[in-house]
Amino acid sequence: MDEILNLETIPQCNVYMGIETLHPLVTVVDFSEVKPLQNVKKNLGLYAIFLKIGDCGDIKYGRQYYDYQEGTLVFLAPGQVVGKENERKFYRSEGKALFFHPDLLNGTPLGKHIQDYTFFSYQIYEALHISEEEKGIFIECLNKIELELKHTTDKHSNSIIVSNIELLLNYCMRFYDRQFKTRERVNTDILIRFENLLNEYFLYEKPKKFGLPSVKYCAEQLHFSPNYFGDLIKKETGKSPQEYIQLKIINIAKERISYMNKTISEVAYELGFQHSSYFTRFFKKSVGYTPKEYRSNFN
């Protein structure tokens, strides 16, 4: 089994890279100034954001290689494993990065909504590709954080650092919104594939075997992480994937209820509901009528 290097703290991370620790919970890294790094698997106990400038070598995340091109931002959350298996070569990088420990956010407004920055859970093929202007903004934010790290510590230090991290993350949300928009044609194709996936799911009676389609199932079938898939569908339709799936189920239910040769229980079973009573509550909440009332009123 390959050895995994655990980098649980900022001091451990800095020792690995051969740089000075200015703050126990956060560090800004210029990879052109660090020692040659060994490309081994690493388990991070930190949040990390990498900006690639030039050739930084490959990053392996899980079982796949990161789409890590020039001007790409990579986001990692605590507990994620990166690096190569059976790869002991040393390499030098060009790029910048921000690492911060979750404890830095304790008691801060950012700590209460860090989960809203869903890009920390995106998969490898969902990286953020930024423009030169966006790269400049990102580096400026890093420089502000680094300037504060070099400032004499006082009672305002942590709040200023966290505020600047939140500013950087908010910019990244804007950059992702831009990427969703500029890839609108690709996203429209994904929406079509999502629709076709649901149509085929109900056409081939998969609900009888597997139950109702989940967001996780759809994301996996379309080769996305649930978070990225959710953000993309929300941007395109104004609805979450779960809402989109529920609307599809209701539309199919209305169609099948209209056939008088099927009981409500049979329709519920065909759609993947284990109990017809749950189907009745689900239908009434969405339509305002029970399935029986809908059949009586609209047939």
UniProtKB/TrEMBL annotation:
InterPro entries: Homeodomain-like_sf, HTH_AraC, Tscrpt_reg_AraC-type_HTH. PANTHER family: ARAC-FAMILY TRANSCRIPTIONAL REGULATOR, TRANSCRIPTIONAL REGULATORY PROTEIN. Keywords: DNA-binding, Transcription, Transcription regulation. It holds the Pfam family HTH_18. SUPFAM superfamilies: Homeodomain-like. Residues 196-297 form the HTH araC/xylS-type domain. The keyword Transmembrane helix does not apply. GO terms for molecular function: DNA-binding transcription factor activity; sequence-specific DNA binding. The keyword Transcription applies. Transmembrane segments: none annotated. This is AraC family transcriptional regulator.
